[in-house]
Each structure stands twice: as structure tokens, then as C-alpha cells.
Specification:
Radius of gyration: 20 Å
CATH topology of the largest domain: D-amino Acid Aminotransferase, Chain A, domain 2
Order of helices and strands: EEHEEEHHEEEHEEEEHEHEEEHE
CATH architecture of the largest domain: Alpha-Beta Barrel
CATH class of the largest domain: Alpha Beta
Number of strands: 17
Low-confidence stretches: none
Strand content: 25-35%
Oligomer: single chain
Distance between the termini: 24 Å
Amino acid sequence: MGNDPKTIDWDSIGFNLIETRSMYKAICKKEDSWSSGGLVPFGNIALSPAAGVLNYGQGVFEGMKAYRTVKNRIVLFRPDMNAKRISISTKRLCMPEMDEGLFIKAAKEIVKDNTDYIPPYGKGSLYLRPVIWGTAPVLGVKPSDEYTFIIYASPVGPYFKGGVKPLSLKVTRDFHRAAPNGIGNVKAIGNYSASLFPLIKAKKEGFDEVIYLNAGNEQLIEEVGSANLFILKDNVLKTPKLAGSILPGVTRDSVLTLAREILKIEVQETDVTLKEVCSADEVFCTGTAVVVTPVGKITSEYGEHNFNDGEMGKVTHKLRSLLIGLQREEKEDIFNWLYPID
């Protein structure tokens, strides 16, 4: 029933699962609405081998974090955005549409019950993984008759080993992350299984991650395997527009707002070509897990392209500092993004 939090070395945790005390669980029939659930001990769940999620991949998930702040509070960062996105994801995959109020209530409950697993201020966060699976047996290709919603948690440190360092990325034309008019714009579990082989292949070649191109137009970039991508050129910040195959990241939205409202730089959500990326002044990726992480080198058919002599760019650094400062309450929460855990 969870690791003993007293034995955790907070200075050495990475982005790996550490079992906590409890998880939130709710069940909903296909024709019903999500209405109730509760905490259960962290542990395995039993599934039929014919479960819809196992046979047809009918599952969605989210990623979010709780932090200890400089004001000695525990806060969630923008859980309303995750609630809205999982609601869209469930609807797209023919699941009972997740109730946003229940989602936030469940997230708060799991944090409250596992507060002793939240790393000390400045040493990490409590990562929450909400998931919804089609769990009833189903033999023909059709939606499941019953769904299970779970939120489990784990204390985490940096996503990439060795702390924050500029990433080395590889552009691939051999694989696509998502197809036009597919499900690339929702957080479906199948989207990530497709990225595993390209990622393993890239890591064997010495890269940290893969940049995927638009399946309909390979002149345009889309995403990194587990994050959104940004470029800065002549003090204009650009990121690929949400055109149906790109995940609308919570951190992506936060960075766009911080750049526009705080740094007062021009922001464009638009088509971004591979050539533009290779000639950018700064490149970085964003996500709940990676936060804001600089890119130091990109290898593509156009050769090897280095950025900022292997250091974090000035604008990248400012955006990362602003975002982390808000999450830790080191800066004023002028956008009302924080949800305190009472």
C-alpha cells in the first residue's frame, strides 16, 4: 500500500513511479454520467482479457502536478484545463463524457490523502495520472459498456536525467505521430504507443527525443514525442497551430500567455516549417512533465543545427523561470492558475 514516504531520498528522485498510499476510483456505465467515486488503496486492478481498453485501445489519460510552494501551501496547477481536455478526449473516444467538477474534486482528494508524498519545496512535485479505460468485456469492435476512472499519484523529480540541460533531438521522416483528422488532438493512450519504437531507436543513436513532421505536409513540424515545440526567431515566438493533430498542451497554453502578457513579445500559432526550426534563435519544448526544456541540437536531413552554444536561451530561461515561479508561488498568481489544497 505504497512506499514509506519517510524512506524517500528527495534529492535523487527522477521521473519514475513511486507507489503512494491511495488512488481515486470511479465506475460508470456507458449510458450513465460520472457521478461518484472514492479513495481506495493503491494497487492492481483486475481486468477481463476481453476488456475494451486491452483489445481496442479505448482509453485516455492526463498528466498534472501538485506542488509545495514558498508560502508553505500545496497547490494544483490549472487542473481546470486538464478537466476540459479529458472531457473532450472521452467524448472523442465514445466514453461517458467526464464531469469536470468530479475530475477536480477527485484530484484534490488524492492530493490531500497523499500529502506526505509531495516532495519538499523546490525538490519536485506530486505527479497525478488520471486515466479512463473501457473495462467491460467486448468482443466486436464497438465501445465498451463500462468505464473505470482512476487517478494515481507519484512523487517525481526531473523528467530528463541529469536535470535541465539542452536536448538533442532527431527529426524523423520514417514515422508519424498522428494522422490528419485522427486522434492526435486528444490524449488517447494509442498515440503514445506509436511513439515508443521511434524513441527507442533515437535514444540508441544518442538523441533525447524525436521531432515528428505533419503527416499531411512533411515540410511542417508538429510535436516532440511527449511535448509541444516552440521556436524563437527575431524575438517572435512561434508554435504549430492546433489544426486537429496536435495536442493542446496545458503548459503550451501557459507559455503562450506568459510570453504575450508578461514578456510582451509577439506570439504566433501558425504553420512552422522544418527550415524555420533549423534556423531559429532558440528552440524549446513544453509539457507537464518536461516543463520548459531547451533544445541544444537538432539533427535533420539539412544537417546538424546547434542553438545557443549548448546553453539555455535567454527567452527560454525567462519563460521557464516565470512558469516555475508561478507554480511555486514565488511570483504573484495574476492569472488565477493555482488551486490551493485546503
